[in-house]
Write a structure and sequence with these properties.
heterodimer, A: about 160 residues, alpha+beta, six-stranded antiparallel beta sheet, 5 helices, 6 strands, about 40% helix, B: about 110 residues, alpha/beta, five-stranded mixed beta sheet, 4 helices, about 35% helix, globular
């Protein structure tokens, strides 16, 4: 059994769906037990990622779709946002995304204005993957960043 | 997910009240309304954001653009009534130090 629940949304690359994605992620995050402030951070970070994806699809002149995948663990949420319509294998894409490099992503940051900067500030881990479009992969831990990731919880 | 923007100008004093959520979908509405005033010489603008429930970088972009245009024409922009969430957004982006911002519940001029 997978150690997480997986929820995937596929929305038209239109700005009116940014809020829908934001509210859905807010609902998912509250189920895991994130604090009010953390949920607000997640709402902004996910909006920024979806907004970037929508704008990217728009400049490409495509009537595309944005795919938003959320993996819900006991202690964290992983959110993947892709601006190319194909549904992804979450684990496979996760393995492919590399660390975020300031210089490489300079253009992306400028395009998105302050967006990527906010994503980096509000989330605990951020990775960006360029291949068949742009995929943003971001993680937030309940109660802040964990020092050790492999600690077992006492209760099950 | 809507936005309501009420702007009223008397003798180059612009008073604004913004309500709702400012994101990629609603920011163009706000931008368009503010653009109608941003090129007036010496405009004094006070925008009340106390009923803004949500804002992200698209909203910041609109306020920065308005601030720049008004400043270039010798005017002034003040944002007031910001929730702690909104204030934080301006602070972490460094805009809080540049722009004239007043949080909700804070006194002052």
């Amino acid at each position: 059994m997978r150690p997480f629940d997986y929820v995937e949304m596929r929305v038209p690359a239109k700005s009116q769906y940014v809020g829908v994605a934001r509210l859905t992620i807010s609902g998912l995050a509250s189920r895991i037990g994130f604090s009010f402030d953390d949920i607000e951070d997640l709402k902004i970070a996910s909006s920024e990622a979806v907004t970037n994806a929508v704008q990217h699809a728009y400049t490409e002149g495509e009537e595309g779709e944005v795919v938003i995948g959320c993996a819900l663990y006991n202690d964290k949420i992983e959110i993947m946002v892709a601006d190319h319509g194909q549904s992804f294998d979450f684990e496979e894409t996760k393995a492919k995304v590399g660390p975020y490099h300031d210089q490489e992503e300079g253009a992306f940051l400028r395009e998105g204005g302050l967006g990527l900067y906010l994503i980096e500030t509000l989330m605990d881990e951020v990775k960006v993957h360029h291949q068949e479009g742009v995929t943003v992969f971001m993680t937030k831990y309940v109660g802040g960043e964990q020092v050790e990731e492999d600690v077992e919880t006492i209760s099950s | 997910m809507n936005i309501q923007v009420n702007l009223e100008e008397i003798d180059n004093n612009l008073t604004g009240f913004i309500r709702g959520e400012i994101d990629a979908h609603t920011a163009p509405v706000l931008r368009e309304k503010l653009e109608a005033f941003q090129n007036q010489d010496g405009l004094k603008a006070v925008l009340d954001l106390s009923d803004v429930d949500y804002m992200d970088s698209t909203g910041l972009g609109v306020f920065v653009a308005f601030y720049k245009s008004v400043n270039a024409k010798g005017g002034h922009v003040k944002l007031k009534g910001l929730s702690s969430r909104l204030k934080r957004l301006f602070d972490i982006t460094g805009l809080g130090e540049i722009m004239d911002i007043e949080s909700a519940g804070k006194g002052g001029n």
